[in-house]
Amino acid sequence: MKRTEQREHIFKMLFSVDFNEGSEQSEQATLYLEQIEDAKEKDIEYIRAKVQKITDKIEEIDELLNSHTKGWKTTRMNKVDLTILRLAVYEIKWDEDVPAGVAIDEAVNLAKTYSSDEGPAFVNGVLARFAD
User: Per the confidence metrics, is the pTM higher than 0.85?
Assistant: First the structure.
């Protein structure tokens, strides 16, 4: 499975974090991962581990987002854009295997697929501040 596809599954799993209580999240993650067709065990483990790492840092990521945006606190952002930004900020700040430019490009592509018409520009604008 390519990293782009893994990232899309990570995004989908992260999206559910705000809607499930902690005790439910593990069960929901397992159910989701069981539904991925043609996934190898290493792909499942990579996805599961990365979702957990990001989830563990959500408060810190949200603080970073709030300090780098003007007029758009995380509480005002739509959940799709917020989830995309959380994933990208994690990759920029803590994932040494993902160059910042790749994280931004992938985030914009996710926004093109899952967000509103304004989503890609919003995501790109917010993440540009992290790349400086």
Answer: yes
